[in-house]
Description:
Blueprint: E1 4-9, E2 19-23, E3 26-33, E4 36-41, E5 55-57, E6 60-62, E7 69-71, E8 87-88, E9 90-93, E10 96-100
Antiparallel strand pairs: 1-10, 2-3, 3-4, 4-8, 5-6, 6-7, 9-10
Amino acid sequence: MSDWIRVADAADNLGDTGREVIAGGKVIALFQHGDQWHAVDGVCPHQGGPLAEGCVVDCIVTCPWHGWQYDIRTGQHQINPNLRHTTYPVRVEDGGVWIQTTPVAEA
Length: 107
């Protein structure tokens, strides 16, 4: 499982924003919803906006550049059902938040 990378402390509280991390050479947006952690590709496919800087409401992140919205749990675009953003597995272990750099879903 060498593709799991520690990216945060489990005690961190991200609130309603995300954190941009680099894991396995990829820009990833890390989000926290309650006690659950989620990771999606950190670059909005619309025009390259930084998703980690977007606001999260009810597990939906809004890109700060042009308002595209994605479910942080699934990557599902909120208007076009044919679009899905890349998501990454996340686990909490040994006091850390770990991301697996092999994606769950491709955009």
